[in-house]
Please model this.
Amino acid sequence: MLKVPGWEMSIVWYFFLGGIAGGAYFTAAIADNFGSSRDRAVARVGYLLSLPLVAVCGVLLIVDLGVPARFMNMMLHFKFWDPMSIGA
Amino acid sequence: MARTLAMFTDTSLCIGCRACQVACKQWNELGLETPEWTGTYQNHAHFTEKTFRLVRFIEAPGAKPNGDLAWLLMSDVCKHCAQAGCLDACPTGAIYRTEHGTVNINQDVCNGCRYCVASCPFGVVSFNEQTGTAKKCTFCNDRIHNGLGPACAKACPTDSIQFGFRDDLVAKANKRVETLKGMGFKDAQLYGADSGGFLGGLNAFFLLLARPATYNLPEHPKLPQRNVVVDSLLSIGSAILVGVGAMLAFRARGKGGE
Model:
C-alpha cells in the first residue's frame, strides 16, 4: 500500500464495534447450544447486543463514504475476490 | 475489443519541461493546488486528486555512462495495468476497463469508499474531498474516443510521451533500448512493456535509464488481492479455534454446575 486511503475514526469504531458484535453473537450461540441453564444470561446479552451493534456499524460505514447517498452501488455488484464487496 | 491503445514514456528524451503536466491540468480542468517544496522542480511529491501527470526529478549518482551523477527525469502517470488492483478492488463497479484496454473511474457511480486508493500498487489513485470520489488519469477517455491522443502526449515537445497501438509501441521501444545500450546506457530497460510480466503488462509503459527502484517504482509490483484467499482461510481457522475454546469452556462450566 503506497497511499493512505484516509479511513479514520469511523472505520476504527466500525472494526471495534463490529468485532464486539460478532464475538458476542458467536459466544452467545455457543453458550446457547452447549452451555447449561446458568449460561442463559450470557446467551441473552450476546444476542441482544449483536444486532444493534451491527446496525451501528452499517451506519458508520455509510457515513464514511465520499458520497453516502450512493452506498447502494455497492450492493449491485459482487466480486468474490474482493473483501469489501463480500462485506457489503 | 479494439486493439489495445498505450502510452510509451521514453524517459531518455524527457527534458523536464512539465508541458504534459500542464496540458493534463488544462484539458481535464483539474485546477490549482498549493505548491509543495520537494527540493527539486518536482511538484507535487506524489500524485494528487488534481495531478494525474507528474514529472519526477531524480538525482542518481553514477547513472551516466561515464559514471557521473545523472539528472533522471520521468513523466509518471497511471499505468492502466492489464491486471489492475483498483479495478479488482472497486466494490461499486465504478472502475471499468474501456474497449481500448485503459482503466477509468466512472465519476457518477463511485461512492468514495477509497478501497482503490489503498489497492493501487503504484499509489496513483487519489481521493477528492470536494466531489467525494476517487480520481486518477482517464487516459483522456474523451479525447481517445474522438480520434485524438491524450493531452500529455500531444503536448510533449520531445516525443518523450508517445501514444499509439500497444504492439507498435512495444516494438519501437525495444529498438530504442538497443540504441541506448549501444550508446553506453547499460541499465536502459523497459518497465511494464512485457505483457507476460508483472500485472499482465502496463498500458502506459516506460523506458528507464536505471533500475526501477531508482525511480521509486516497485521492481515486482503485485496485486493486493493475492492475499485474500490465504488471509480468509487464516481468519476462518482462528474463528474455529476460538469457537472450540469457548465450547469447551461452556461445557466444563455446565458440567461443574450440575
